[in-house]
Amino acid sequence: MILEPLGSVLLGLALAWLALRSLPDRLPSRRAVFTTGALGGLFGAYLMHSVLGPGHVVATLVGSALIGAVTLSLLIRPRSRPLSRSAAA
What we know:
The chain is mainly α. The protein is built from four helices and no strands. It is elongated, with a radius of gyration of 17 Å.
């Protein structure tokens, strides 16, 4: 019973670490990203456990990783583009 929440938090933290390594300039502070990853994974585990019921640990963890990834994707900022010459005039 404790493995689902603990595993989902660890998966969320791992996803947050991967996001910070691959998109460091497009994400907010590290603290916000790690918090969002952990809470997204935990929410995903809660949601999947509510939908599937007990006894589906692997499916719950997979669903929690997917929902954690979606939650982290909400933090990504668009790329900043320099103004072109015609727009600056």
